[in-house]
Design goal:
There is one protein chain. The mean pLDDT is 94. The strands form three sheets. Strands 1, 6, 7, 8, 11, 12, 13, 14, 15, 16 and 17 form an eleven-stranded mixed β-sheet that branches. A four-stranded mixed β-sheet has the order 5-2-9-10. The chain has a two-stranded antiparallel sheet with strand order 3-4. Helices cover 33% and strands 26% of the residues. The protein has a single domain, classed as 3-Layer(aba) Sandwich (UDP-N-acetylmuramoyl-L-alanine:D-glutamate ligase). By secondary structure, it is of the alpha/beta class. The chain is globular.
């Protein structure tokens, strides 16, 4: 197996809104979506998408780009959980390590789409994780997991890496993991070969105020992370191998909804690495995948197969990574 994705799977319910307003601070960097309190709020549309979440999105993205992928995830023993397994299997993901929880249901996210941006209400069920010990993939991709079970899962990942010296770790921390704090994450970060975070998340993990790209990237290099990728939403992304920092703006395209863009970038980037690409070319793989995903509602529909991904890179061949100078 090329990649085993580890993390929670959810069902997403998308609500398209128009009856809301934005309240932003003076510099416009922080905004709040506002509804009338105590009122019934009409929505323009609803879409339900099962079998998503950071790990599921990544596993499917890797599979569509021609690599073998599997997932370790815990879902409810309910309609949503069984549907998630079917979707993963249909998309070429090894589902032998999908576990059904008979006590707790499948996770749920409600995504409010307003002005091409999304606000996500997330409900995570409590989970107990028992990572399979008989797997030895080329890469582990560790991402969002739930609550009290996270620390134990991290210990199991470290044990698996100790057992399988050739397995590399890609890490995209979710909210529960980031909330553990820097000291708790250090053992994993020191084992991480490839780190994915957005700029704000990176500052939170390092427990610093600045979102300066150099400070963030070299902060993780100092911990021992060889390759750091920082995504910056519609502004593009940065990647560093410790010698050079590269910047790549997003490709042009109609932006419909941004859920899953980071996962698409991560699966595209890692697929590029698996294909033997350097980080600048891997950035183009991630960029194309993310550009496609934001053209659709939901995190899965726009995930590209390799031929379409290479076609997009060729279409925008004039947009290439450049050395980043602050």
């Amino acid at each position: 197996m090329d990649v085993l994705a580890i993390g929670d799977t959810t069902e997403d319910i998308f609500l398209q809104m128009h009856d809301a307003s934005l309240q932003c601070n003076v510099d416009g960097k922080k905004c709040m979506i506002c509804f009338d309190f105590g009122e019934k709020i009409a929505v323009e549309g609803k879409i339900v998408i099962s079998g998503v979440g950071n790990a599921a999105n990544h596993a499917i993205g890797i599979a569509r780009l021609g690599h073998s992928s599997g997932i370790y995830t815990v879902v409810g023993d309910d309609t949503e959980g069984h549907e998630a397994k079917k979707i993963l299997e249909k998309n070429g993901v090894d589902v032998s390590n999908v576990v059904f929880d008979t006590e707790h249901g499948t996770n749920l996210s409600v995504v409010i789409n307003f002005k091409s941006e999304r606000t996500i209400l997330v409900y995570h069920e409590p989970r107990t994780y028992e990572l399979p010990s008989n797997v030895s993939p080329k890469w582990l991709y560790l991402t969002s997991a739930s609550g009290d079970g996270v620390k134990n899962l991290h210990d199991q990942v470290l044990q698996l890496l100790e057992k399988n010296k050739e397995t590399k770790l890609a890490f995209n921390p979710g909210t529960h993991q980031i909330n553990l704090g820097k000291e708790e994450l250090l053992p994993l970060l020191k084992k991480t070969e490839l780190l994915f975070l957005n700029r704000e998340e990176a500052a939170r993990v390092l427990e610093i105020e600045t979102t300066d790209v150099h400070t963030l990237i070299y902060g993780f290099h100092a911990i021992g992370v060889p390759t750091v990728v920082l995504t910056d939403g519609p502004k593009g992304a940065y990647a560093s191998n410790g010698k050079n920092i590269y910047y790549l703006p997003i490709y042009p395209g109609k932006e419909v909804e941004r859920t899953g863009a980071g996962d698409a970038y991560g699966s595209g980037f890692l697929a590029g690495i698996l294909h033997g690409k350097g980080i600048s070319e891997a950035m183009q793989w991630g960029n194309a995948n993310a550009t496609s995903v934001v053209m659709y509602v939901g995190a899965r529909e726009g995930l590209l197969e390799q031929e379409a991904l290479l076609h997009m890179i060729q279409e925008f061949s004039t947009i290439k990574p450049t050395h980043y100078v602050n």
